[in-house]
Amino acid sequence: MLxxxxxxxxxxxxxxxxxxxxxxxxxxxxxxxxxDQEWDNFVYLRKSPRGKHLELWHHISGCRQWIKVERDTSxxxxxxxxxxxxxxx
Amino acid sequence: xxxxxxxxNVGMVNREKKISFKFxxxxxxxxxxxxxxxxxIANGVHLVGRSFKYHRPRGFFGVxxxxxxxxxxLDRNNERDPxxxxxxxxxxxxxxxxxxxxxxxxxxxxxxxxxxxKMFFPAGFYYKTFMWPPSFWYKIYEPFIRxxxxxxxxxxxxxxxxxxxxxxxxxxxxxxxxxxxxxxxxAAAKNGARVILAEDKPRFGGxxxxxxxNIGNQTGVEWAQKIIAELKSMPNVTVKNRSQxxxxxxxxxxxxxxxxxxxxxxxxxxxPKQRLWYIRANEVLISSGSxxxxxxxxNNDTPGVMLSSAAKEYMKVYGVLVGKKPxxxxxNDSGYETAIxxxxxxxxxxxxxTRSDPSSDIITEAKNLSIEIKFSYVVVAAxxxxxxxxxxxxxxxxxxxxxxxxxxxxxDCICVxxxxxxxxxxxxxSGNKSKFNEKIDAFVPxxxxxxxxxxxxxxxxxxxxxxxKDAFDKGFDVSNKITEKNNKISVxxxxxxxxxxxxxxWCVPLPKGKSYKRFLDFQNDVAVSDIELxxxxxxxxxxxxxxxxxxxxxxxxxxTSNLNGLQLVSDIENKxxxxxxxxxxxxxxxxxxxxxxxxxxxxxxxxxTRKSPMHSWHEKNNAVFVDAGVWLxxxxxxxxxxxxFEASKREAKNVRQNVGVCDVTTLGKIDVKGPDAxxxxxxxxxxxxxKLPVGKARYGVMLREDGIVMDDGTTTRISENHYHMTTxxxxxxxxxxxxxxxxQLVWPELNVNVVSTTEQWAGAAIAGPNSRKLLMxxxxxxxxxxxxxxxxxxxxxxxxxxxxxxxxxxxxGELAYEIxxxxxxxxxxxxxxxxxxKEFQIQPYGTEALSTLRIEMGHVAGxxxxxxxxxxxxxxxxxxxxxxxxxxxxxxxxxxxxxxDREKLVGVVPxxxxxxxxxxxxxxxDPKAKFPNPKLGHVSASCWSVEYDNPFSLAIIKDGKxxxxxxxxxxxxxxxKTIPVEIVSSHYVDPEGKRVxx
Lengths: 89, 998
Ligand SMILES: [Zn+2]
Prior knowledge:
With about 90 residues, chain A is mostly beta strands. Chain A has one domain: Folate-binding fold, CATH 3.30.2270. Helices cover about 10% and strands about 35% of the residues of chain A. Chain A is built from 1 helix and 6 strands. A 4-stranded antiparallel β-sheet of chain A has the order 3-4-5-6, with no helix packed on it. Chain A has a two-stranded antiparallel sheet with strand order 1-2. Chain A is globular and about 40 Å long. The two termini of chain A are about 25 Å apart. The mean pLDDT of chain A is about 95. Chain B has 6 domains: about 15-125, Ubiquitin-like (UB roll), CATH 3.10.20; about 165-290 and about 420-485, FAD/NAD(P)-binding domain (3-Layer(bba) Sandwich), CATH 3.50.50.60; about 295-420 and about 500-515, FAD/NAD(P)-binding domain (3-Layer(bba) Sandwich), CATH 3.50.50.60; about 520-585, BFD-like [2Fe-2S]-binding domain (Arc Repressor Mutant, subunit A), CATH 1.10.10.1100; about 670-840, Probable tRNA modification gtpase trme, domain 1 (Gyrase A, domain 2), CATH 3.30.1360; about 900-998, Aminomethyltransferase beta-barrel domains (Elongation Factor Tu (Ef-tu), domain 3, Beta Barrel). Chain B contains 25 helices and 50 strands. In chain B, strand 30 and strand 31 form a beta hairpin. The mean pLDDT of chain B is about 95. The interface between A and B is medium-sized, with 27 and 27 residues. Zinc ion binds near residues 62 and 63 of chain A.
């Protein structure tokens, strides 16, 4: 079970969190004309990297903040966690 | 009481306390502190089971977690525990155990015929034997395998025992209380670290309990007792026996099962049977020790063949002799320790040493005790069926390939020692890739992936002096990283006998003309010949060989078989073991009971039960409840001997004719506040929200980004920057997360806050033509006329002194209002509504009537919004704004969503107006078409229309609206029904929606 450092609450066990998927996906702006391909990429296409991955977790049983976690998908090592709108290093 | 194999005054069992127990129905005696194994051996019982595949007789092989044979089934207080290891289970008064894998009895087992049919059970027999003909599978093969396989039968009864979970944190977790575990725990504890020391056996001390050593001028046992006593007295230390750390998970989370009551006749009132510990440790020291490796020879699975270390432990800990004419077969000095122990207890052993001329302190001691030793000698085969009676032994050539002078000698047990295998399971589970240590012919942990380190013999250190010194150092080092107290204690002096190197020999060649089975995996009956066959058939990867032959796949996870299997593969392949590699170790290290994993979360406790503030009223008024998510909601209120059909029909009819009241507390409620709230809702919902005035509600549908409907509900503008959103009961939590996602991550510039208020409000929906009259009496000072409180209007008012919110919204399609009060006032509100409503023939209605009312109105709910529907499918196109953008809008352009033959919402009525259509039925054109019948769609919800007094259903079918008027068929292969139906509008009742606006 992962031990996730919520930037708002501190170290908490994985069972307080919900996984939220790839954190690098950016939603296209509202009212912007975009191609089917761009929209398709946003809705469906995700990389599934082996290694470092920036992902979203939602601290649902804690502060209810969405946070970003940089994690190695094969070793589960967590390098850094960020608040939702913190700049990613 | 006389026990033929019990030694006087030797061992650690409590001779004062005699305990009786039953094995296969027969009564035996043992002493407090005995295991089933030690007590049975004391009584001369060695036959305890039958093997998995060939049903060969099985005895005891080990003395602890490594035991591959003695797996029993335990009956305790009318409950059944399969997969009990006789070497671990302590006896208690009244214990009853029986053998598994044998029928009709352990002494006469019909399955043993497999032993004579062994040509049918080669490697991969699962894949070969039971393939053909296919019709034989379920009639003959499957029942046969099911009867023959497994280690006992699980009970199908509810387990009444209590299991608990505990979460714990520590600086240092130490897994095993042998010399290295004790030393490191002591060093770390003295340095101020919070330490948990776990021992899987009842007694602390590990190998110190059985070895002849001195630490700090005390015997090993005395030293262990002193250290444990001191650790127990320290507030920063938790010491646990009967506790197995079985799993090493991510981020230094380890799981331990503590057997609290398994050794007691009855669980004590305030104690659980077992407790599962989730331990988050800053550092872990793995001191799980090592397991003696078997030597491989003919019939080496015969009862009476066992590990030499086990024989020694039975003597030293339990005061039990495993035999009176022992043969010790060894390739190293450990066998000598066992022989010396036998000799001290007046039994004359014979040692067969595979080495030609070894010399060490221990060997000299054995010679001085005039123990008979035969060098360059091996056991060729054990003789005897249910118990060893003799052994064929032989001199072996220096190259270990040829046997000479084969002779038969009498013996009643063969104690084998093929050197030691470090238990690297936990380290391996932590992600540590092991490395092969040539000196000990075994794998040891390599680089740590997590905060762990392995000490003592688990790390391949086999001298006590080095073990103690290394463990003291590691205990100090890891604790000092955390406590920085620099309190280092001195390492005690160690006196031990020096041993010499072991012989790499492990497998005795077959003599000419003999085809003895030589077993590698004792639990799964995998013999040398099986591995040879698998390799001949082309299996190369050790992972494939393992799965094909089932080597190491049994409940003992190959604790005794792994390395010999690898040795064999590398010998045949002309490789060295590290080239072959080893298979992955996975948790659990030892079997864990399902009860312990589940803990208290069973039955009603598996999830919380949520009740509305009016719950007790519903109970008092004969409500029959239904689970709605985690909520309990009244399904109907039973009158007299009504069933669900009559009751819900009565309730629904009363809503259409008079007035009904329904508890709607469970609806999700979210407060949306902030200057940008309107803009936010406008992006979340498919329809327009910017112009909703204060005091007005609006129905909204929200989509996921892929265009599928996520949820629907009404949202009311309470004040300029404050909205009250409602969601369906089921989706409440998901909608909140969804809103938070967009506010926190996608549009952080919006100044809006959302919070769940579901539990803050109690809700009652009053619906029916009399509901306005009722409202007038409930709120006499309020203008509730159609002008004063129009459809989708909102008012705040006073309900007999209690502040209330009134929303004029309707799910039933009738003139209706929803009243919310603070939860604490919910019961009061409900009682007032019932009291005042009496004169208007008010009746409460449950979810079943609620369903009926919404279905005949054509209002969609969860069964239509099932994760596949887009707004157009559910007749919600009027709610999709063409002008503005919103979540999921871009997806609605997808060709699949714009195609004309999408399945859409319609109504369905049976032609005969009497046959109810089962939910889930297919709508088809031709009921006689060849199976599978091309389906037009499915029936999503069915009810008995109280308006027209006939069955009515909603269905989602291809080209929906254009099918209205068509005569089709509803087919339910499940219920074996085919019903002629007519497709009608989904708005079956009041299609113009006059009533809600009246
Ligand atoms: Zn948090």
